[in-house]
Design brief:
about 650 residues; binds calcium ion; six-stranded mixed β-sheet; 28 strands; binds MU-OXO-diiron; alpha+beta
Length: about 650
Amino acid sequence: MKDMDQKLTFDEWDELNFPRPEVQDFDRVVERAISRRGFLGGTLAFGSGAAVMGTAFLKGSTALADAHAGSRFPFTPVAAQTDNTVHVPDGYTWDVLVRWGDPLFSEAAGDWSSETGGTVEMSDKVFGENTDGMEIFNVGGTELLVVNSEYTNNDINVPELAAGVVGEDLEGIPQSADHVLKLQNLQGVTVMEIAQDSAGAWSVVVDSPYNRRITHNTPMQIDGPAAGHPLLQTAADPTGTMSLGTFNNCGSGRTPWGTYLTCEENFNGYFGATGELPADEVIAAGYQRYGINETGFDYNYHSFDPRFDVTVNPNEPHRAGYIVEIDPSDPSSTPIKRTALGRFKHENAASVVAANGQVVVYMGDDERGEFMYKWVSSGTYTPGGDTATLLTEGQLYTAVFHDDMTGEWVALTPEATGMDEAMIAIFTRTAASAVGATTMDRPEWIAVNPTAVEAYCCLTNNSRRGVTNDDGSIRTNAGGDAMSVNAPNPRETNNYGQIVRWRPHQDDHTATTFDWDLYVMAGNPDVGEGAYAGSANVNPGNMFNSPDGMQIDTAGIIWIQTDGDDSNEGEYAGMGNNQMLAGDPVSGEIQRFLTGPSGSEVTGLTWSSDRRTMFVGIQHPGGDWPDGNGATPRSSIIYVTRDDGGLVG
Ligand code: FEO
Ligand code: CA
Ligand code: CA
Ligand code: CA
């Protein structure tokens, strides 16, 4: 303690001992943001949500409806767990649908083993690693599951790079073109037909003509304002309109016209340099803002695949970081990078058709102090109509939150930003900084409530919020925007996260103004004090940290998935493994529905078309889950059904 005191600057010491009056004012803002008198108590304002709660999920659940007295959910909540398996409530059953390495085509059957992690030859014919966002599309009665594989744990995919096999300095760092190709093949997107047998068991339909792997090498069309721009031109593609691969596919989205949206998040990590970084000022500034450097995340692609070597190909990173549209119904279709929706570390893409038919897509940029965005199409959607330009022509906005519980979507126009449309599409973060977007605590998934005109965003955590540098200045994002505490991000050193909700004015998702509140501030009521204990709807029985994945089902239930600290110790004591909770948008009640195996993140959620099965992603499990007996842990998709065959979403 003494040492710490000696390290405090005068300003820090002063702030600790004599907090400034504005801090107290700010506390009142926070109190208002999470007040029960706000949206949560607003049954008048949110009455439509109350009316539809219970249509699908609750109806016909008589056997289970009474299971948890006082709750509107038809299940008995699951206690926090620390073991190496999945838990769901009594009356529900889970099983594994597919694991990393499972074959999509019969030629790859039996290829995967713990010893090899599968062969490079079959690596684009199996289910990829680290499952994340996913959506189901019903095409002519066939269920197609489209799933992201976000990244690879190189040391388990390529066991010859594991600890003890190679020296510490080489652990997990690819050492050959084959290593690189295998990792490139095991990421991206999988399209696969799935089917349920007469006993209710789901499985992948091996060799379905719909089955497809989209990898780091699949040809993509580039669309929108950035297409053809000199900054997207490379030696291999002088037109700047065709690129290879989609990267770090994190969350998902779906369009009203039945296509899949995959969201390129930490694309920067795949690039590296064999020599100098580019000297060009514009390029260098972009690299700095997006985190492109000599080594990336040690994928070492650049040593064996020159496309990823920015010394040779400085524009290649400008061709990643977008929303990519995929037509799952046509295995020969070329995915399209929709640059109009901006270039940043895209988490997911939550779309909704506004009352007037315009298509609105909400998006978050998951990095400390980065921003939230909204796309509004120029044209309108009509079922069966032409949808080709709905994600090309329109307006991109960024969110500004005010302390008075209102906010606005500020248009990223050339006039407002001083940048032309192509530069806004390529350096979207810079454009948003120029208009004073609100720095957020890492926007993860956004979900639109289908039963009320409102949307939610998981702000997962931000350990640097409100934290000062040694010189006393406040920490900033990579663009220099200060991460001072602000109304929707009210906690310094925010290790728990919160969920912000907004309601567009005039019940219109195209509106440029909105009201907002905090649906929940995660926290620990056992060990945390003040705001760190969490909001009133957090208690010792449902506490969690780092909300991340999120979907809202047809009944308006908010499904919240976590990607946080699962140590179950210290400030996280009592939270257990990462998990999935159900939230009531009207009452604010939150109950734990599922716990993941130790070490895992629970991410990705979708439902069968009959809503009687939910599919849940289990990413980077620890131990030997799901195969046991010392096997390699494998990222998997599980499915959950009700024993009485009832609806689950
Ligand atoms: Fe891939 Fe921000 O999670
Ligand atoms: Ca995530
Ligand atoms: Ca996360
Ligand atoms: Ca994650």
